Amino acid sequence: MAKGASLSGFPEWLPEERVVEQQAIDTLRRIFELNGFLGIETRAVEQGSSLLKKGETSKEIYLLSRLQEVGQENDTPVEDRLGLHFDLTVPLSRYVVEHSGDVAFPFKRWQIQKVWRGERPQEGRFREFIQADIDVVGNGDLPSHYEVELPLVMVSALEALRAFGLPKATVHANNRKLSEGFYRGLGLDDIEGVLREIDKLDKIGADEVSKLLISECGATEAQAKACLELAELSASTGEELEREFRALCAKHGIEESSDAYALAAEGLATLAMIVDEAARIRPGSVVADLKIARGLDYYTGSVYETFLDGAASLGSICSGGRYDNLATQGKKKYPGVGLSIGLSRLVSYMLHTAGAHANRQSPAAVLVAVWNEEERGEANRIAEALRSRGIATDVAPTAAKLGKQIKYADKLGIPYVWFPGREGAGDEVKNIITGDQEAADRTSWQPDTVYSRQTVEYGD
Amino acid sequence: MAKGASLSGFPEWLPEERVVEQQAIDTLRRIFELNGFLGIETRAVEQGSSLLKKGETSKEIYLLSRLQEVGQENDTPVEDRLGLHFDLTVPLSRYVVEHSGDVAFPFKRWQIQKVWRGERPQEGRFREFIQADIDVVGNGDLPSHYEVELPLVMVSALEALRAFGLPKATVHANNRKLSEGFYRGLGLDDIEGVLREIDKLDKIGADEVSKLLISECGATEAQAKACLELAELSASTGEELEREFRALCAKHGIEESSDAYALAAEGLATLAMIVDEAARIRPGSVVADLKIARGLDYYTGSVYETFLDGAASLGSICSGGRYDNLATQGKKKYPGVGLSIGLSRLVSYMLHTAGAHANRQSPAAVLVAVWNEEERGEANRIAEALRSRGIATDVAPTAAKLGKQIKYADKLGIPYVWFPGREGAGDEVKNIITGDQEAADRTSWQPDTVYSRQTVEYGD
Fold first, then answer.
1. ipTM of the complex
2. Does B104 sit within 8 Å of A361, measured CB to CB?
């Protein structure tokens, strides 16, 4: 939890910690734009009816009421009240439908915004946090190659965040069609039920899941065993995936001519394409992992979860999938595929586990000293001259003793202190880290590159 | 109001409009950091008790309730409930007190975030909007030169926003001590009452204000007239301000030896310093305007409002002042001075009045064409090569006819279409705006500067 989070679940950073978060956001935005995604920002507020549509998380909504309505909130049904969005997918669906005449399809968008979850205060989870999402939404249809490309964009974004101390990320991909085809081939019908139980594997283990499959989803012991065998399957090439999947189907009597197999084969082809293309562009970044189920039931094709090496306790830090039916307008569908990074948790990891830190608190590279208040105007003029050339500059708060002014610069991590020339002498500038002092011209002096900008480092 | 704002008061922009807002935010951040301000972000949520502290706007708060608490909201007193912040000053006060041991004072911070006001839906005002604030907060005391510098930082920020079509901005400054000293010198005691009525001048005119001063604040006709004369006073140099103010005091029998005059003189000195220093650095950017009163009663020194040439209907677009008593911790005070830009209204002006627009919808400079789906991998490789050199690149969504692919680029405003070489021929790239086509090497080609980045222009 963030230091100084005075309200449980609402993280807040110190200025030097915020530099890490801000630069992480800048980095994600840069990668998303480099890949041709358009940035949007949606309002924080949605109608209750939109928020309630999407099963699982609906329990965790914050509803709003105007102070002047206190006491009469319940005159309005929840569906007609306003609530804070709990993710960026529901707002995207609404946005796309509302603006379908104004955006170009397929619509590739990035969005980095806060979301809110009305969790119980004692759970110790974030109730306000930043999500960073990319999605591609088609008008009517959406080519499956986006199911290959989107996780790869996220891989390159997470790769860029390694500069902030994140370990290597691996995307684990599966495909709902593959799972569904296999389960149907076994003779199981409650597909959503089976997926829901399989999703619990990491939490409760194979034995418990097996029991639940039998008690909750009407599976026989043999069917439950087969489901668990599928979940154990993983592969890093399409060829390996296909070979193992076929063997498993053969073992359980699922014929390749069956409708069930045909459905599975669709998912298999997409999943094979994902791992093979990923292996070409970034070897080792994406694996097929057939236990990935994802809780939410709106996914219809690929599903993804992402884990960091050596940070299993964080769980999946970037998840998503393909959804064909989330956004609709009459008969028209807007199928999409997208992934979402839970950024606040990552920033917390960067700060508290990886030791990420800003090289300095202040963006200023220079503090101009002030000999006395009468000469503050001259100090301001020097600051203006430096700023006009893009050099971030602060001016000493008071005309205190020089030692005190230098201490102020030191506390903020400002590397240079500028001494205005007096009585005909020229200006001088001192690097208070190296101790070097030199004559300097306010119209041409440049800070050393290493001291010119606020940057983020990690480690101790 | 924003096009497509499907919920009244909650503006939402199209992707190409969002580019304008995003670059305006980037510009403000750049100027704030250039001036040595530290960026922070506070949680969107504050305790009801904090939100209710600050008089005037307290009517307009959105309170939160967890969905699971619906029906029991009123078991909790409003003070103990959570609400969305309605400005960035209340959160700053809390933040400074909470982290007083961790930040360097004077604490100079910028903050650009959404705020919410629970206005009546029918009022047609923004209920969610972005504010951009700078403040300096001292520990115990705060030198008055910050009352000079902060409006000048905002002037340079607003100057930078002229690239987005904003007209020239002028800060109108006054000082509460000057007004209070003058009113007390006249024999008036209800200082807050007089300020509140004077603040209505632009809305209801001098005659009505005069009546209110008499009926509400116990003023005689002569006192009311004197208050209005003070409000008429404006000056662009300290010398002019001082001369006119002295003449007015003499006229109304306020002696320079009185306590009331001494109080006014303090405010006069700061205000004179503001206009004179502003005139040196940016002539014409700041004027003394003694009718500026500001509704909020927590200001204790300088107060500012900012108007755009020829956009009087917007009202003040950047306001603030000095507050000595907002943040306290036991006996300790954290006096501050700050200004706040209502950014969403400015963006609305840029878009709908000034004609600000992005040069293109997509951040991508290049769209790589796809001859057929089998060759998509090669197109991806080209895109990767360009991105690795910082060139934002998209890949055609389908292997449609070339004309259709070019049309997709055109719709997104992507200036270049890249044709992968086939059968031993090299790659070519076409600028679809100029029609120029040339051989191109994916490892060295650069777009023309004018087409390399998403930029904002204004006018028709």
1. 0.95
2. yes
